[in-house]
Amino acid sequence: MSAALQVTAFGLALLSTLFLLLATCTDCWMVNADDSLEVSHKCRGLWRECVTNMQDGVRTCDQYDSILADHPVKIVVTRTLMITADLLAGLALASLVLGLDCITFLKEDPCVKLKMCYGAGVTLGAGSILGLIGSVWYAVDVYMERAMLVSHNIFLGVHYDFGWSCWLGMAGSTGCFVASVLLTCCLY
Fold this sequence. Notes:
Elements: H1 2-25, E1 30-32, E2 40-44, E3 48-53, E4 59-63, H2 73-99, H3 110-151, E5 160-162, H4 164-186
Antiparallel strand pairs: 1-2, 1-5, 2-3, 3-4
Helix pairs in contact: 1-2, 1-4, 2-3, 3-4
């Protein structure tokens, strides 16, 4: 039972960590929602903004200025939280691999292996919370920006909505949290 639970938690943690990494690296945190009026599809990410022409499929991307340049708070905070979540999830994944019962590392000391799995669960939980805060922070900021423009009757011609990268970050964080709960609460 314990080995099956560990392997399940490992598979979920691996998939969720990949989702977190993809969310951090991809460029579609915010998309234009006025596809019926537009001939192009615009995506804004944490690192660049991309426009895809719907007629011929040509995609062009503009990199944001240097990482040290002045950026909106939502981008800086989300970058920081997502990178930290990625690092913590990767560290937890490495620790979890060494703590699995099916790995022969430290086979003669099961107590240490169990502590490694528990530590991986705690680290994974911390990373999941940071990733979820970063993803939700960005989503709430997009919503507030849109609500403020609507309340002031301002129409800029482009209406942005949450992109698939934002949803991927939320899904990855939630998966890491579930894996953390499996490792910290259900393993004993």
